[in-house]
Amino acid sequence: MKRIGLITTLNTNIGDDFIREGICLLLREQFRGEEIEFIPVNKHRPLSAYPKWHPIQLSKAAHILPRGRKRLSRFLETFAAKLKSSRFDNCDLIVQCGTPVFSPSCSHTEWVKPIWEGIIGRLHEQIPVFNLAAGSCYPWERQPVKIDSPEDEKYLRAILSYCRLTTVRDRLSQKLCKTLGADLPLIPCSALLVGKGRKVQGSPSSYILFNYMRGGGHYTWEQGIDEQKWENSVKTLIARLSKRHKVAFLCHDEKEYSLAKRLDPRLPAFFPKSPRDYLECASEAKFAVCNRMHASIAMAGIGIPSIAVCTDTRMLMVSQIGLATHYVKDVNADDLEDETENGIQSVRSEQDRLLVIQSETWASYTSIIKETLHP
Question: Which DSSP letter does residue 272 get?
Answer without folding.
Answer: -
